[in-house]
Amino acid sequence: MYDEVDAGRAVDEWVRRILAESRSAALIGVLLQLGKYKPALLGGSMKPLLGVSEIYSMEQRLRVENSVNPFWSLEWSRYGEDAWNQARDWLWMPHRKILFFDLVMPLILHNKFVRSEFLQHYDQWKIRVSQRPDDADCQHAINQFEVAIRFFQAIEAGGEHLAEFEEWQQAKQKEAARDLEEMNANLHFLTLAPQCRKRIDEHSPFPSGQLGDFWISLLRIAERPDSESGEDRKADAVLGGLALMLRLHQEWVFQDTERVSFCRTQLRSFLDSPRDRRPYDFPESVGDFDAETFAAECGVALLSADRNDLLARRLVLSGLVSFRYATVEVTMRYAHQQRSLLGIEFQRMKSFVTDWSLCQWILHWASEWRLDRKRIWERECLPKIRDFERGESSIPNRSIAELDSIGRSRLKSLFSSHLVLRERQSESGWRRIMRRVGIRWVIDKCRGMPPKFAKPNGDISDEVESDPDREFLSVRHGVPQTWPGVNPEYLRAGFAWLDAATTETPVTDETVKALIDLLPVTLRGVSALHPTTRLQKTRFPSHFDDWLSERVAMIAIRPETQKYAVHLWEPIVKLGERGQFWVRHFLSVWFRTANNPALRPQDFVNVWRKMICLALDDPNWERNHNLRWSEETIVNDLLGFGMGMAVFGDNEQFVEPLTTLLPEFQRAAERWFKHAGIVEEFRGFCVRPAAVGFLLPAIRWLSQARLFWDNWPWDKDRFARSLVRVLQSVLDRHRSSIESDDDLRKGYVSLCGRLVAENHHSALVLRERFSPGNT
User: Fold this and answer.
1) Model confidence pTM above 0.85
2) For the chain, how are helix, strand and coil distributed in percent, rounded to 5?
3) What percent of the chain has pLDDT over 70?
4) Alpha-carbon distances of 547 from 498, 541, 560, rounded to whole Å
């Protein structure tokens, strides 16, 4: 069609045939683009398209969809760059950006024949809408053309009707203004909560001149009727505004008793009539601009001002026992910021969080095992809640390790009750299982009594050690040893204040002791390796484990924490292969701390030296001669061949400090360089600018270790290329040193000879360069 129009030939016959015979909506799109390309056709053979109301709404939807999801780009990318460029040029032709409405309106204004015919289409649209009020496409077309059509109708009816048109137009403008005002109010209502959260997070208070207007908007939102649907956001908006005012403008609020009364009324109303949990809510739900979170923040703010405020204490408690962990996180983070004003109340909150992690864990498994959850709530949970509400002077000071032990005992007791309940309820499968293993033995096992196959010293026999189910809840083994007795994810939320505390300078003893107290929970989840296969039948680190190792890694480099190293980071490093994923995550975060500009490279290297020595002296880091892939990976991470070189490999400030690690790396080379996977990563380490001091010793280490390499690495071109690169770098930098040292010269030549023998001829060039008389 484009070609015919460009050649000056008429296409009216084809247009009429398509309109008369075609039933394809795609061909309507062809005609639509042709009309945009040649607008004169719209006043001729393509005039019937002007009366199709669906085109106007459909075109706007397609424009939005194509701007958000350009599917054509994905579809044409598989055909190559040339085809993609042609498709782009075709789809981005200038006329395709024009809306059909923008071409039709000038025709109506300037062409009386088109206008006369279009008025008939408009009247038909009106009739359709009166018969089918839900016809959105037709109503959209009417709204687009209504002003212009009414104007022309008034002119055709006579000049005296223009006054009626102007009156109608003014009424429409007022109606549009009201709709716009209502829309803005609804938009402000819906977006107020996230806007308040953004201001709170950025600590961006209002200018003094805007406080009154914002307060009035809060009052108006509070007066709005509750939504008839279950999705009411009024509480989010009102409590978000109150949290903003109490956190950033508390003095301004307290200056007026009516403001204080409004705040307390809204907060008390929220506590007295909590809304139902949404269907899509779950403990790990993200988002911190809901009413529950804002209410807890208001409670912390009020409790900071008055420690005897019962309403504030109830609000804080609602945040600490919240179903969502995000609410607990925000509550504890803000309480940590206000700890100087809260005083002993912050200690009480930390103690409650620790105790509640035990209660929540027990409630969770009571629900899973279909036990009497209400009885546990009344006996074990309600007393703690009431003690916190009353603000008892004494604060429990139990360690997390102690609570973890208590929780495990309770889990065993609950599981035995669950087994008894299931045995009573079932007359088939479970009864046969109980008879087979002995119900009495199961109950004793769950209560912690030693099984019959336990050794005299208390160890478990090889039968249990080789049982693949020992890490899972089962009738035979009961609650696994790797299961915690407290809720780790709730602990992570309750100790979220450590995120800020670990970045403070200096790190306080309270922060370090909190991390040490949490470590046993994550270390329990690391199971022992199988004594024969050395395989690990356990889970990967949880979110709690990763979070805790990140917190420990961030302060492990601090000078003030070195006295706690034996309790802080050493237990993680000592896990070795048994906890490879725990150790690798810790090392990854720890190496990234080297980017801190305030850190002296020598201080970083001193701690690194302790870690390497600890691993070299610990049997968990190697149990036999043949390392598996996982063991090679963890050794590479420890020696800095991965994240270490990515962080400071090009930083020449580390050259001298890293040189002091040569004795430790020599011990590591004697122990681990017999494994080709480690040597392959070492080659990338020693050629980096920061490790230039390792190039010359590398020749001695590699020549001694080559006797242990099997044939596998030599079949890999990557290994050989890595070794050639090291030899070339050494020759370029230290040729004279190699020539003057017999051991270095023999080691260099032996490595080149081995490479040549394996048909890697690039080493032959290096050997020839190193021959006497060659430069």
Assistant:
1) no
2) 75, 0, 25
3) 84
4) 10, 10, 21
